[in-house]
Amino acid sequence: MRHYPDRMTVEEAKAFQNDVLDIVGQIPRGKVTTYGMIATLAGWPSHARMVGRTLRYTPGAEKLPCHRVVNIAGRTAPGWSQHRPLLEQEGVIFKPNGHVDMLRHLWEPEIM
DNA sequence: TGCTTGACAGAAG
DNA sequence: CCTTCTGCCAAGC
Fold it and tell me: Has residue A10 got a pLDDT over 50?
């Protein structure tokens, strides 16, 4: 029995990262999803922060549509100036307040 | 071993 | 709406 109930083992962390990359690769053009959603789909609801870390530091993530991942408020990643332009380029509409119009673009993943 | 750092989320002011 | 704080938890030092 683990001292910390939901702490990841090395194997689980590796699997989690694979799942995250796989899920991001499935986001359709013109749609977006959130860090928390991806973490939940991967089976670790409390690991939203690790999703961001994975996308940022995993080599090869650049070739995935990781720009289609925003936070739950529709805010783009701080320090990544190209984030918004990349989304607008594929038709994503931003509200006057600078946030993605989530109601319009949030991706509804299929049940598997 | 212990403290700090985030591409987060939610609540508070 | 924006800033700050708290909870969260793997990684880095």
Answer: yes
Q: C13 C1' – A99 CA distance, angstroms?
A: 35
Q: How much is the pTM? A: 0.92
Per residue in A81-111, pLDDT (tens digit) is 999 999 999 999 999 999 999 999 999 887 6
Instruction: Give the list of residues 6+ apart from residue A74 with CB closer than 8 angstroms, or none.
Output: A32, A95, A99, A100, A101, A102
Distance A72 CA to B11 C1' (A): 14
A38 C-beta neighbours (distance < 10 Å), count: 27
Nearest to A22 by CA among A40, A42, A8, A36: A42
Distance CA A77, CA A53 (A): 12
Which domains are present in chain A? 10-105 (1.10.10.10)
